[in-house]
Amino acid sequence: MKHPMSRRHFLARPLALPLVARGAVPGDPIEATLEAAEMWTMVGDRSALLYGYNGRIPGPLIEARPGSVVRIEFRNQLPESTNLHFHGLHIPPDGSADNSFRVIPAGGSFQYEFTVPSNHAGGTFWIHPHVHGSAARQVSRGLAAPFVIRGELDEIPEIQSAPEFLLVLQDFELSDGGIPREPGFPERMLGREGNLIAVSGRVQPVIPIRKGGWVRLRLLNASSSRFYRLRLEEHTMFQIATDGGALPVPRPLEELLLTPGERAEVMVQGSRPAGSFRLVNLPYSRGNFGTVTAVDDSTLATVSYEGEEQQPVRLPERLVSLPPLPPPVRVRSFALGQGMGMMGGGFTINGRTFDPTRIDTRARLGEVEEWEFVNGTRMDHPMHIHTNAVRVIQRDGSVEQSLRDVVLVRAGLRVRVRMQFLDYTGKAMYHCHILDHEDLGMMGVLEITR
Ligand code: C2O
Ligand code: CU
Ligand code: CU
Fold it and tell me: In this structure, which residue's CA is closest to atom 1 in ligand 1?
């Protein structure tokens, strides 16, 4: 029998990943090398043949500030082509910045370079491959690296003083020999899920908390299809940030749903006398196809009371505020569909599967648009838009006071978002972040021009 102590792995602050790069002051250039390669690594007590950046699952953390110049020397040592996408960053969608059209062949290298705008929101972003047709496979083999921008939220004393943990959620499906299993077509249609879940590369890590004190959890869903419905036993989570940065006020939650690609930051207070509490992943059904995916053990991590008691402090009532968005000049509709017959089960947006040579949507720099996603399928689709963050229009017609880049469009339902095309022209993409759906065609090209 396993002694419970054998599962105790303490995460160091801010996390157990090496910092490849961090800018000490605004404007400090950040230089990093990222090498993608296939490697044997341990996930919990299993050895696995995965893909990693710099030999790690997940890849190293890059931490920047508004105004940072970022240079990443990227080397592709994989046996196949790949590239880097900077998910959620507001940077140019072309050139040597967030250019998802550029493909780096096996053995090739490329220098990515961009400047984080000086008014960029702080938040949790990430890097992952984005080659159409192989995104799901490469991400599900482990390629993901967190990219944090320190901003306004990090200056709030009650938040700054809390120990911070980064939880990168990844799932793997391995053979007994530790080789990733490539799913068949039906599984790709649903979106592949693996039943070995890693939290920042570890299985069921322990997060220490002090009685009375707060911890800050940065959560990133880096799985290719799995949704996480998170609950921390006997503790309320206070959400302070969504994908694109801080919320105006902390939002108390008993449960948090994190769809693929999505991020959230929550604060948790040591409000119990003592003990260990499980961060559990509750079952979630991604549509009306009759299966609820469950794993053998739904415990993702444990929050454990230790150390000295702390004098409790209150979270501030206000965090940061968002400037209002002008009204939209245009409303567009995007029908999410699934091909029949000849289409062989591909996924479509407005009846078409992805074609990199076609422009599906033309927008004007500076304009505000409202996009409505209409899900006519029996599956949920978390829709993601590159380059500019969006604000969700709520049921009552008000605009959500938070920035997102992944919005869940549930089976049979519709969701409206608004965004302004700021600063950059070029071609960007929008797609379902169930990466098998993206690979099977549910992606479009947006061109922003002057
Ligand atoms: Cu996280 Cu276009 O992807
Ligand atoms: Cu993205
Ligand atoms: Cu989808």
Answer: 87
